[in-house]
Amino acid sequence: MAQKTPAKKEYFPRSPRKSPANAVIEPALKSAIKVSDLPGLKKQLGILIAIVSFLLYAQSISFRYTLDDGTVIKENKVIKKGFAGIPTIIKTGYWYGFNDSNDAAYRPVSLVMFAIEWQCFPDNPYVNHLLNVILYALTCFLLFQLLCKLLNEYNVLLPFAATMLFAFHPIHTEVVSSIKSRDEIMCLLFLVISGLSLLKIWDNQNANRNLPLHAIIAAVCFMLALLSKETAITFVLVFPLMFLSFRKIDKKKLFYLGGSLILMAGIYLFMRSQILETVTTARKLLPIDNTLMDAKDASGRYATAIMIMGRYVGLLFFPHPLSYDYSFKQISIVGFGDASALFSVLLFVGLFIFAIIRFRQNPITSFSIFFFLFTMAIVSNIFLIIGATLAERLLYIPSIGFSLIIAAGLMKLMKVDLKKNTITSFSGIYSKHSSLTLIVVVILLAYSVKTISRSADWKDNIALFESGVKASPNSARTHYNYASMLLLNLAADEKDKEKKNSLLRKSIGEFQKAVSIFQIYPDAYLNMALAYTYLEDNTSAIAAYEMAKKMYPKPNAKVYNNLGFLYGKTGQFDKAIELLTVAIKITPDFEEAYNNMGNALSGKQRYEESIPQFQKAIELNPRYAEAYKNLGSTYGNMTRYDSALICFKKSVELNEKDEQTYAFIGMTYNMTHDSINGKRYMRMADSVAKLSNNKK
What we know:
Elements: H1 20-31, H2 39-56, H3 69-74, H4 86-90, H5 96-99, H6 108-120, H7 125-150, H8 157-168, H9 173-177, H10 182-203, H11 211-228, H12 235-246, H13 251-275, H14 298-317, H15 339-357, H16 363-377, H17 399-413, H18 428-432, H19 434-456, H20 461-471, H21 476-493, H22 497-517, H23 522-534, H24 538-551, H25 557-569, H26 573-586, H27 591-603, H28 607-620, H29 625-637, H30 641-654, H31 659-671, H32 675-695
Helix pairs in contact: 2-7, 2-8, 7-8, 7-10, 8-17, 8-19, 10-11, 11-13, 12-13, 12-16, 14-15, 15-16, 16-17, 20-21, 21-22, 22-23, 23-24, 24-25, 25-26, 25-27, 26-27, 27-28, 27-29, 28-29, 29-30, 30-31, 31-32
């Protein structure tokens, strides 16, 4: 039998030869780094996102109250109670502190925050704005953490690029720059925290001792999101969608998750129904609130609503021009035969079908599409009518889906692998993916220019309303708001008579544009009449008040009073008395109406009847200098000079700058043959008049 030759012993063995398969597999294994394996990089990127998000809106910290900030904070009687107002906030509707209404919206979280801020920093919009910016930066930071955890099998560049696109998008300027939109910020912030806790529960069910704590956090934050804004209810669908898209399907887990979310949503809806008188606003809305109320039939309403959904997508792709208002008639009612409505129908049907068909093969795209559709559904005006035709703030949460799909699309376009992480440090982003980095940076720079310039429009109401008439020239409300600002703020504060009259005439022009767009706009006619009154064009003022009087659904005491005043001023005393009688009947404690009634009766020389009217006005307002002066004049006309002097002197005690009353005192003394006091008070009248003219 042949013997085997012993193997030759190698004292210096060579490395084993790599097979072609090993040459491919080993580098792939080294590059297959999960997002969860990069805590240092995640921390760096998260901090960067928070910093740029804060800097992007830092200028808004110096802004004033704008738009609805006044009704929600500055003019809200409950908020101004501070801590003492919190119990009322919890058991009443969103607008209760402003107009005593207790319907349509229940969002106590932001209101409680405003009450606390007012208690600590009363009438300080800068603190409110600072908190908005901080909370936005925190939301962006946590959103990045959520996307990293959700997309833990994907390239870290995907959640990073998506979050940066979200943080920089100009569509968010209304949410961050308007204090009132704290409800949007808090809603998303709590949803993100809830989502992070749910992911920890799902991914670590058998390993984490803190699962009960995460469950409590998830439930509490979801409830707080609902109490921030009712749109959070769409996450009853979104949270399960997250796990269906990016985790192995576990029917038992999905059942418990879905049941828990439905239970929390049910508790919220029950609370809401117990507190609010009505849960929707549709039956109270007018076309000026939502253009869809002007649709002649259901077909027009649905076609227009779907067309507006297409407009939302357009604003995400090209956010210009941006406006705080898109109400009647900035967007016209259309039918399904309209090209824009037809395009929107085809777009959303196509996206929906694509998302279903490619759900497993392309989960990023499908998830992004469903995320957008689910979160937009409740505010789309398709399933229920809301209080806005179109509003940029409503894209705040849905834009996450847009940002994610754009980030994924750019990575595919630049041939960057969505699944594999090829970077382990911040510096590696540009060195290994320079083309992707450059295109994202260009988009972010364009976004930042628009965001910063648009945010500046929110610095005060003057800038905001001026921008509104330019961006939405067909909106009756933008012209009305701008006109009201010219009338009630700029003209009211202007000392130069020529400039003041110029502002008043400009405001009238804007009011006329508003009523030409929306003919049944009583508030516009009311303020237009006020502007005419200041210009001493009584005929035009009366015509405007008469129009307003016809349009209010219920008799408006203010309109009847002002109209009665003007009729009295023009010598039409019978009409004045008739209108003022109605004003007093509507509002029995309307001291100005009693004063005007007294003047009208005096104009008819019914002095004995006029005296109780002035006395009632003074009873309601003991510091009513004008009523004392008018009562004094009535006594003077009745030759009751002693009583007249008492009233006149009380009037100047309350208003030392009224030269006319000093002159009346001087005239009354002259009537009693007391020329010394007569001359003294006439000199005082001249002095007050000169002082007033010098100040002007």
